[in-house]
Every structure is written in structure tokens, then in C-alpha cells.
């Protein structure tokens, strides 16, 4: 199964001001999420940001939310976006959900499990998720994969959405996201 850009949404889970400093490779994870959000915007994919208890943990990092000012921002107290019933119809009406964010073994995992139970095709961007410990990250990814989520990388998302080279869009995207130093 490949990602279909006309039927996919990017869900950015809980990349919030007070949580980010606690996770492994925070700077790199944020840079890779930023890259992925920019790709999604350029490809026309809807973007949704979730926030776990923003009154205490802060909002989504402004450098991410500024990339997608029209994106839905949903608040939750449940670790799972699905249990919190906060995901907008614009996301739920699409068959595929691409997921990045944190923490891999808590909010990302529980949200992914709920999306799978709803029959969604879920793609977890392995290089754009993080946890406080690498062990938790690795086991979170393994558990999601075992449950039926597809583990992908950012470049896999880009190339599956593009599908073909030799087009003006491919040239634009490859120059913007594949040339030079990338996060």
C-alpha cells in the first residue's frame, strides 16, 4: 500500500513547547517535522496539530504551526486523539493518516492504535517521532508496526506522494527538499 496524497492527512502529535526539550534528538526531530509539514503544505495535504493539555505543556512550537496557519489545532487530555474524540472531520473523512510527533510510545502509539481500530491506513514517519528514551521510541515503533501501521521515512512520504519524476512538481520538490543538507 502506497500513500495517496489525495486521500491522506498529516497529523502532528504534541510537538509542544514544554515537551520538546525532554525528548531524544529534540532539535533533529523538530527539524524533520518541519520538513515534513512543509512538504505536506506544498503537496496540498491537510495538516492537523494535536496538543496534550496545552495549558500546562504549552502550544505547538510556533516554528511548526507558522508553516500551516490554516491547520486545525485540537486539544486533548486523553493520550490518544481518538479517545479524546478531537480529530476534525477533515482528517476522519480521509482514508490515510501520516503521523509524526511525540512521544512515540505514548500519544503517538495510542493515537495510531485508535486510528487503526477505525480502519484507517496509518503511516508513522519513523524519522520524525521521538520519546524521552530510545528504548521507548524503538518499542513504540515496533508495537505500531506489529499492529498494522506502516513505518515510513520522510523521503518515502515525498516520493510516494509524487509518484513520478520529470514533472514540474517533481523538479520543484526535489530542488526544495532533496538538494543540499537536509535535516
TrEMBL record:
<protein>
    <submittedName>
        <fullName>Hydrolase</fullName>
    </submittedName>
</protein>
<dbReference type="InterPro" id="IPR050993">
    <property type="entry name" value="Isochorismatase_domain"/>
</dbReference>
<keyword id="KW-0378">Hydrolase</keyword>
<dbReference type="Pfam" id="PF00857">
    <property type="entry name" value="Isochorismatase"/>
</dbReference>
<feature type="domain" description="Isochorismatase-like">
    <location>
        <begin position="9"/>
        <end position="155"/>
    </location>
</feature>
<dbReference type="GO" id="GO:0016787">
    <property type="term" value="F:hydrolase activity"/>
</dbReference>
<dbReference type="InterPro" id="IPR036380">
    <property type="entry name" value="Isochorismatase-like_sf"/>
</dbReference>
<dbReference type="InterPro" id="IPR000868">
    <property type="entry name" value="Isochorismatase-like_dom"/>
</dbReference>
Amino acid at each position: 500500500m502506497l500513500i495517496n496524497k489525495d486521500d491522506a492527512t498529516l497529523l502532528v502529535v504534541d510537538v509542544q513547547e514544554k515537551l520538546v526539550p525532554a525528548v531524544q534528538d529534540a532539535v533533529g526531530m523538530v527539524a524533520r517535522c518541519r520538513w515534513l509539514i512543509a512538504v505536506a503544505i506544498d503537496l496540498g495535504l491537510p495538516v492537523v496539530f494535536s496538543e496534550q493539555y496545552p495549558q500546562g505543556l504549552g502550544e505547538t512550537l510556533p516554528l511548526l504551526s507558522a508553516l500551516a496557519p490554516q491547520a486545525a489545532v485540537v486539544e486533548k487530555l486523553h493520550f490518544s486523539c481518538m479517545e479524546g474524540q478531537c480529530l476534525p472531520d477533515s482528517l476522519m473523512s480521509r482514508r490515510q493518516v501520516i503521523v509524526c510527533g511525540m512521544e512515540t510510545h505514548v500519544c503517538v502509539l495510542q493515537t495510531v492504535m485508535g486510528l487503526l481500530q477505525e480502519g484507517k491506513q496509518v503511516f508513522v514517519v519513523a524519522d520524525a517521532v521521538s520519546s524521552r528514551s530510545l528504548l521507548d521510541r524503538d518499542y513504540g515503533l515496533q508495537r505500531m508496526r506489529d499492529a498494522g501501521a506502516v513505518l515510513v521515512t520522510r523521503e518515502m512520504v515525498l516520493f510516494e506522494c509524487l509518484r513520478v519524476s520529470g514533472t514540474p512538481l517533481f523538479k520543484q520538490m526535489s530542488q526544495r527538499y532533496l538538494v543540499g543538507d537536509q535535516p
